[in-house]
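SEQUENCE-TO-STRUCTURE ENTRY
===========================
What this section holds: a protein sequence and its matching fold, both as plain text.
Question of interest: how does this chain fold, as expressed in backbone structure tokens?
***
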Amino acid sequence: MHVLNAEVIAWISGPGQSSVTGRTSFQARPEDIHPWRFAAQAAAGQVAQVHYLMAYGLWTPQRAVHCAADHDREQAIDVLAGYGYRLGRDHVPAGGKSWGMARGVARRKVAHLWREISAVARALDERSLLTGDEIATLIGATNPSASGGVS
């Protein structure tokens, strides 16, 4: 898929409280997206948050609760269902896969790509918004065009 941009969105959520989320915008043709990789990608944000907490000795059950990304799971379930794939929340549906399986794949990928993820996170911390091409250059990758080529 072609990444348009990634951004950090922060806001004051209450007195003395702030919240942070992120958004990645992309273009892709449905035939170019592998359904189970899409599910793993949806799980990767939650997995990366937990990985960060554990890597820096910050993990607690209370913090882990705030890593839940139910909206990402529900989006993956809905998108895949639209293409005839079954992703179960807490079970393996007939002919499909479970969210736990998607998280397992994401966990392996996050561990393997932690250096690149950290580099992009540091850059987003400095600038809040990066284009897909900037991200690709930063990590030494290519940003495929939305038409299937390389941009």
Helices lie at 35-55, 61-65, 70-82, 99-112, 114-127, 132-139. The radius of gyration is 16 Å. The first strand starts at residue 2 and ends at 14. Residues 35-55 form the longest helix (21 residues).
